[in-house]
Amino acid sequence: MFKRTKVTDGTATGQVGFRKKSKVPGVMITQYIEKLPEGKSHPDFTRKPIALTIQEGKFAFFKAIVTGDPKPTVVWSRNNGDVSDPARYQSKYDPNSNEHTFEMPHVKPDQADTYKCFAKNEYGQAMVTVVLNVIEVGFKMTKAPQQQAEVANCNFKKVLKRRSKVVPKAEEPEKKEGEIDPKFWELLMSADKKDYERICAEFGVTDFRWMLKKLNEMKREREEEQAEFVKNLSDLKPIHINADGTASFELEFDLLDPSSSIYLYKDGEMIPYTKELGDKMKHCLRKVGRKYIFSMRDLMPEDAGFYQLDVEDVNMFSTDFKMVDFLVKIQEVKAMEREDAVFECVISAPLSKLMWFGKNMPLEQGDKYDIEVSEDKLIHRLVVKDCMVVDKGIYAACAGIKSCNAWLVVEADKGAPKGKKSARKTTRAGGSGTDLQKVAQEQQQKLDKEREERKEKIKAAREAAAEAAAAEEPEKTADSGAGKDKGAAVEVERIDKTSVAATTTVAGDSGSGHSAGKASGGAKQDGSHADAGGGHSAGKASGGARKDGSIADAGGGHSAGKASGGAKQDGSHADAGGGHSAGKASGGAKQDGSPADAGGGHSAGKASGGAKQDGSHADAGGGHSAGKASGGAKQDGSHADAGGHSAGKASGGAKQDGSHADAGGGHSAGKASGGAKQDGSHADAGGGHSAGKASGGAKQDGSHADAGGGHSAGKASGGAKQDGSPADAGGGHSAEEASGGSRQDGSLADAGGGHSAGKASGGAKQDGSLADAGGEPGITSGLSDILATRGQPAELTVKMNTDCDGAWFKDGEPLKSGGGISITKDANIHKLTIHSCRDTDSGLLRFVSGDLSTEGRITVGDVPEFDEDDLHKFSKPVIVRVGQNAAFKMPFQPQESLTVSWFKDGTELKDGGGVKIVREPNHSRLLLRDCLRSDTGEIKIQLKNPFGAVEATSQLIVLDRPGPPEGPVETVETTSSVIEIKWNPPKDDGGSAVTNYIIERQERGHSLWTKLGDVSAEKTSFRDRNVTHGKKYSYRIYAENPQGLSDSLETADSIMAGIMILSGPPGKPKVVSTSKTCINLTWTPPEDDKGVPIIGYQVEKRKKDTNQWLALNAINEPIEDVNYAVKDVTEGAEYEFRVSAINESGAGDASPPSAMACAKNPNMRPCFKDPEDFLVVRAGNSVRVKISYEAEPPPHITWLKDDEPIAPWINVINTEGMSQLVIPSSKRSDSAIYTIKAKNSVGEAFFDVEVRVTDEPKCPGPVELEQTVYGKVAVSWVPSPDQELDDRLYYVVSQHDSNTRMWKTVADRLFANTYTAHNILPGIEYHFRVYAKNDMGLSDPSQSPTWGANSNRVPISSNGVSSMEISFERPPSILVPLKVHTPPKGYQLYMTCAVRGCPTPNVSWYLNNTCINSDKNYYITNSCGVCSMYILRVRENDGGEYRVVAVNSLGKAECSTKLTVRD
To answer: Rounded to whole angstroms, how far apart are CA atoms 205 and 203?
Structure first.
């Protein structure tokens, strides 16, 4: 089931390796034998090499010091390469310092690697690794390509245009049936063979033989491509999560051309990266030697994806980064000492290895830890073997950015013998407490189901592809007519050849058909034409469906059947028109802006214009029918005309934008009505001759709704308008009523020119505009300033009250139709149409008709828009913690008259307070300071100009601690051993899911809250098994999420464990004996134990003058006997005691209190504790003599001075156990022997303390010198004035001579006033100082006269011997000659010799017979005949013969030596 990770050591064949721990971190020691012989040891490092980062060309070296007996041998190696080249690698050993050195002179970039140092002897081996990083000189300038420089300058526009072979999801083309994701092959080419099966299962590939064959072919091709740019591609390591929270993958290769560009892709899109460590960019690509390491920091869930590394245009490595989650987290483990502890968890996706941490240190498989993984790689376990108390702490499991942690609590084994380890236990503690196998199986089944679904989809896609291939036979002809009429064979043939699928953006018409059948225009969804007309047939003629933009027409057929235009989805024509039929002719339905016409047909059936949803034309007009002719329904700005002659109904199509819907020109006895409009379109119902009703369409904006020119015996009325458009109902001949339409702004409503026996009245207006009912020519609806969107059509209309000609001008220049402009005239309506507005179309337009004119300005512009990449980045939620600032930034193109607004949850934000809005020409920033949890919501930015507005939304998520769990706390169960409680999750989780709940408990009567443990977020109940029967407990629960702990939910009342049956009170305690450290008690058992056995007793004490009773033992530690020694007492304090009997319900009623007992010893004679018998005090300071004593009862204290009572100014302070004598300001007369006397009823005691009050002594008197004997001088002085006052005063004599020039003490502790100095030599001056010294220190010195003058000498008689004069003059001589020196080059050198002579000789130094006394390269000195020469750094030209010559008036002396300089 589980695989155990193996640990291998570098032991020799046949040897067993025992892992040992070194005192130096990072050293791995393997011992070959279990027990070492006495005096022998395995190798170890006392100093390990230090990692080095050095510039190319410098001198690199590692140093190590190893120990071991026998002496180990040291070998150096590197991970990727050989170290045998002596020109590049040199191993050295210094026996003096015991240092092993590994040197690399003139280090090169290819030497950057991980190096290993092995120390081996016959008992084991020690190994340590060290990293060498080499910084290449000029790498950035010469090798960084231009595109990477652009990345460094944050100019990603050009670079990010590159794409990998794996296309981003947003740009993925529609996959062909049965096609496999390209990521499948990319992953296989970079994966190990052991991972092939897993990858195939993930992508639903089951044909392994086919897969391997194709993979080998692709690998060969890829290797050929890679060989053009790199060599030695190896060591491919897929992406993984590191201990520091970053993710990385790495590979090794050598670039053939160092200037080749390296690119990184995520899900097919290039990502910028940096090469500098510590840079703020998210992605980093570092080069260490020949290894390339890609790392990614600040991991988020959106970082999961497919990563690729390319050199130029060739892929080198691909890896898939997936995020996993914990289905079951590790739980707290309580283990006994020397027991194994187990942490286990279940993850959502198979993972071969988790990162385990113990007390913030990474854990690896070894003697202490076992790391186990199940076969399906979903269950992971950590086993902490042989738990000790030091193993206690927090342990964590990390899978990517997800982690979980729990405590390991190790309890000491109380049963273990003292001073010895307890026996090793074979049991295991811990576990998750759930059926991990079941959870893992359910997750595995879920994963298998997803794989099967993918396989089924691939299988179904392949089957569908096979069926489509088998059935793919082009049908070039499809006849839809049963018979031909009037020689229309060509039309039918054209219809048959063009019967294919229709798609988008062309026009569709259905009209002019004569048929007894049905002719319908095709349905359209964009702006295409769908025409069904002109077909003569008794059968069915239909236009083919198109997907590309081709023409599919079903028309011109003579049939009594059906002719319908084909449905289109792109921009093709589908026409069903021109047919004569007694059936139905309808224009195709459109959804964009194309015309759909169903007109001109003569039919007794129905002719209707197609329904439109955008801006297309749907016309149903010109048809002669006894049936119904209706204009198509429109929703934008299209035309829908129903102008047929019919005895039925002719109605204009309904419009919702600015299109024309006309139902006019029809001669009918039925109803002709203009279409209803909602924007600015025209809806006309006019010119119809009918005995029915002709009404203008209702409008809501500025459109025209006309119902005029109709000859009818019915009613002709102008349409109602709500903006400023004209609604005319005029020119009608009727016996009924012709009235102008009502308006609400300032538009014209005309009802004129009508011939009627009824009523003709001008329209009612509400603003002051003109309402005319006939008259001279004039402009009823003029031009006004309009705004047009670039690329969209625009239309300007001028309406006259009579039919007259006019001309159009732009900026003074006349306009004509053509070049994207159409000028039309329809009776009294003049129109200028711009089909696709451009910037050049902006200007002042003017319409002139005779002496009348009107003008208006057209301005062409764009609606603001966002860049798609910026919009995608902005849409990502901004996640901050409470108290942090949230920042939003949105770039946009600079525009004039652009208004930027920010909204939060629909409310506009204003600058001020905690909101800061910055508006720049090309971007805008929003800063929300000190966010609160309530600030979570939708953030929206709006760009608005006169042409329109655009918005972008994002989300602000403010993370906080969760709210408290919902109460009240329910008691599920309470027994003598268990209390179970239950609660509800918090209402607010703080923006991140609750991870767990923490439960604390407080026993009633105690103030301390104790943590019981925690439970997972899914569990909202807890069972407390560590309760005492009869005790009451309070609980409080905290919710925890990654942001912290919530406020607590506390139980309203205490919860009691079980039912209480308490014992009666024991007998009154009796005091057996007392001392200052212990009081012994005894008592009798209770008379009534209530039928429950007594486990023991609890003793409580109360100090006199207090009200608090303190328990001397816990209830769970009862006193089994009926007597007890109370040791927790204070000497001299009085106590009373009481006792309670304890049974399984707890402590019962307390006994009556005992009598007061004092903690004191029996009577004893006074004795003094460690007194001091001598005290020295400086005069003027206070004297304090402290004496501690013991006595019972307290003694009477008396102080004496020299056996006499002390003076009244001397204070005595007596406290319990101590007496203190105080003299505030002491004098020399206070020096005496003070005696303390302590006496009580048992006896008395005495003690003497000598107190000496003194001061620094005064200096002695004048000092005299006298020589009585050759070589001896008698020193005498006058005594110090303090000699008579201080019997402890003595003298110190110091001597100084002109030879040594130093003062030295020659006599100490002299109590006399004389001293004899010895070894007094002639020719040397002597000085003497005399000090007085006592307990306070030295006095100032008394200085003697100078000794050495002839006047102080005592003449020595020669006893008749004649004396002769002595001369000290002598020629120079060499006392110590020069020595031979052979220093290394660059070292320093001292060269010395000793010379004597009188008078003092002159000394000169020579190098190769050249005097060097004045050469600055040599530092030459002569001190008392010692001649020295110093060279700071020895050079090659310093070698040669050195000679010293000493010369005075009596002669000369010389000595020489040779200096040899070593390399």
So the answer is: 6
Q: Tokens in use for 1200?
A: 């004496």
Yes or no: say if 632 and 594 are a contact pair by the CB < 8 Å rule: no
Q: How far is CA 1281 from CA 1187, 1259, 1261, 1278, 1286, in A?
A: 35, 8, 9, 9, 10
pTM for the model:
0.30
Q: Over the chain (1463 residues), what is each successive 10-residue block's mean pLDDT?
A: 39 58 86 87 91 87 92 92 90 90 91 92 91 70 43 44 54 56 79 79 76 85 86 83 78 84 82 64 80 82 82 84 82 89 88 83 89 88 90 86 85 74 80 75 79 71 72 46 36 34 32 33 36 35 37 35 36 37 35 38 36 37 35 37 34 37 36 36 36 36 38 35 37 34 36 34 37 64 88 90 88 86 89 89 88 89 87 90 91 85 91 87 89 90 89 92 91 88 91 92 88 91 87 91 91 84 89 89 90 89 91 91 92 92 85 91 85 88 91 89 89 90 89 92 91 89 87 91 86 90 90 89 89 90 82 50 67 91 90 92 92 90 90 90 92 92 87
| CA distances from residue 124 to 10, 26, 64, 71, 728 in whole angstroms, order as listed | 10, 17, 18, 11, 111
DSSP state of 610: P
What's the full length of the chain, in residues?
A: 1463
| Closest C-alpha among 251, 241, 357 to residue 299 | 241
CA–CA dist 1316, 1268 (Å, integer): 10
DSSP codes of every residue in 1269-1283: ETTEEEEEEPPPTTT
Going from the C-alpha of 1194 to that of each of 260, 1131, 1247, the distances in angstroms are 100, 14, 17
For residue 1426 the two structure tokens come to 């010692």
Q: Is 843 helix (H, G, I), strand (E, B) or coil?
A: strand
Closest of 617, 699, 687, 630 to residue 659, by C-alpha: 617
Q: Which two tokens stand for residue 1362?
A: 């004649």
Amino acid letter, 934: S
Neighbours of 5 (CB within 10 A): 13
Q: How far, in Å, CA of 20 to CA of 535, rounded? A: 99
Q: Which residue has the tokens 């000595």?
A: 1455
The DSSP bridge pattern shows strands 1290-1297 and 1303-1310 to be antiparallel
